[in-house]
Amino acid sequence: MPGSPVNAEFEGRVFEHPEEFEVSAESIRDFARATGATQESHPAHFDASRAADLGYDGLVAPPTYPVIIAQRAERNYIAHPEAGIDFSRVVHGSERFTYTRPLVAGDRVRASTLVESVRQVGGHAMITTRTSIVDAGAGAESGNGNGEEIVAVTSSIVVRGEE
C-alpha cells in the first residue's frame, strides 16, 4: 500500500483561527438537543435560572460542545493546500476535552490549533491536533477577556492511504 501524501512538516505548526466565536444560548440549546439532552435531564443547558441555581453565569454548554469551535479552527490546517489532507479519506479517531471551566452562554472565545503529531502507520497518516479555546473578551454574562484557556480539545484523525 503506498504511503499517505500527508505533509509531516506541518507537525509543530500553529493555526490561529481569524474570527472570534460567541457561545450563544441558542447554539447551546441546539447542540444539547442534537446530543439527546432534554430540559428535564439537563436543565442547565436550557434554562438560565436553573443554571444560575447551580452557580453558573449563563446556560452551560454540553461537555462536547467545544468540538464546534475546534473543528472551525482545525479546518485552517486540514484545508491548507500544502497539508496534503484529502478530507474524503479522513476517519475520526478520538476526541478529548480538558477544561479549566465550563463554556457558558455569552462567552466570547478565540481558538488556535497546534499540529501535535503527524506519523505514518501502515500506509495511513495518524494526526493529533490540540485546539486551545481561550477567553477573548467580556461576554454578556461571563468572562473577563484575560486570554486564559477555557478548554483544550485534543483530536486524533486517520487519513487513509491510497488503496
From TrEMBL:
SUPFAM superfamilies: Thioesterase/thiol ester dehydrase-isomerase (SSF54637). Residues 12-135 form the FAS1-like dehydratase domain. Signal peptide: none annotated. Pfam families: FAS1_DH_region. InterPro entries: FAS1-like_DH_region, HadA-like, HotDog_dom_sf. This is FAS1-like dehydratase domain-containing protein.
